[in-house]
Amino acid sequence: MNLTEEVLFDTEDGVAVITLNRPRQLNAINAGLIKGLRQAWDRFEASPELKVAILTGSGERAFCAGMDLKEAAGQRLRVPPRDFVPVLGDTVHVSKPVIAAVNGLAYAGGWLLAQMCDLCIAADHAVFGITEAKVGRGMPWAAPLTRMLPQRIVMELLLTGQPLTAQRGYELGYVNAVVPAAELRAHALGMARTIAGNAPLTVKAARELVYLSAEMGRSAGLRAAHHLFESVYLSEDALEGPQAFAEKRPPQWRGR
User: Fold this and answer.
1) CA distance 172 to 189
2) Are the C-beta atoms of residues 92 and 84 closer than 8 Å to each other?
3) What is the pLDDT along the chain (256 residues), one digit of tens a residue?
4) Are 18 and 32 in contact, with CB atoms under 8 Å apart?
5) Do the Cβ atoms of 15 and 193 come closer than 8 Å?
6) Structural contact between residues 33 and 20, judged by C-beta atoms closer than 8 angstroms
7) Nearest to residue 20, comparing CAs of 88, 106, 135?
8) Which CATH class is domain 2-196?
């Protein structure tokens, strides 16, 4: 299903697959793609039957090459407004897991779109680059990278603009898995189905725990985590899981 010409939205087994669809332009970010992404995240969050989303790109060359510089040049854009691009965890609220399936190069804003996802699977030919220094633009969105990569790696990426291979990203812990391009969608769907099959309240709280604790010290993080999971322990699902295990049957999650 097309949300706009630039963004496709498909569903499979409780998983939303959101595809950037400008392959001739290396899926560069333009006004139509921005509009389509906003609609996609709204639809995903509002659909209780959708448990996990996958964000990927059309074609074999690029996940996303970043901002469409031809369009930006025509607009003579100076300081982008905070909500210029819909960014998960910043300008857009999504409470469910999102997996980036990076099918090619992810440069500048394309790196941002992969970075904002909770998990990242990359094709073996994918490369990641923060290239703003080469075109005189900025990358304020890269601030969270200092929690995701070593400081000197971040410094090198930002100052040189040189790309990082998918394999190197995996070695540094930035990428969860590197797979042959032909297997990328299947691998991402497999991970998504695994997550979708787990207890939804636990998954939601665990996701929040990771982000919450990253912004706190050890003691504060532990206190917040105990509070976060109290409602999970008191849920019907917390009784259903052990009962299903004892009865040797799949659990029937109710999300309450």
Assistant:
1) 23
2) no
3) 666 789 999 999 899 999 999 999 999 999 899 999 999 999 999 999 999 999 999 999 999 998 866 666 555 566 666 667 899 999 999 999 999 999 999 999 999 999 999 999 999 999 999 998 988 888 888 999 999 999 999 999 999 999 999 999 999 999 999 999 999 999 999 999 999 999 999 999 999 999 988 888 889 889 988 988 999 989 989 898 988 999 999 999 988 8
4) no
5) yes
6) yes
7) 106
8) alpha beta
